[in-house]
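Problem 12. The chain below contains 124 residues. Write out its predicted structure in token notation.
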Amino acid sequence: QVQLVESGGGSVQAGGSLRLSCAASEYTFSSGSMGWFRQSPGNVREGVAAMDYVGTTLYADFVKGRFTISRDNAKNMLYLQMNSLKPEDTAMYYCATGFRGAPGARLDPAYAYWGQGTQVTVSS
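Solution.
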């Protein structure tokens, strides 16, 4: 059974940085698409960044230039480097894999496997 475990969340001031990590068991990230999503109370889960199996990346407009998705195939790890954080980035962040949606829609939450999430809180 595929398990995803996120880490690296925390509390930072606006303008700060965090690096989220996602560890996978029983799944090889390099074989499929993976993504980072976030959800804050009262809001829908939204796509933040995604990467396909050849390494092509896709970002939501609200994080372009600030966040970077990457992976380490040797360690089977997925990362999200978040810079210039804003209070509106406050949310629970989730990694996901096993994409089963339409091509080009990798920021839609059409993934089979999800982690439990890691909280990011940005204060002004």
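Discussion. The radius of gyration is 13 Å. Students who got a different answer should revisit the alignment rule from Section 12.3.
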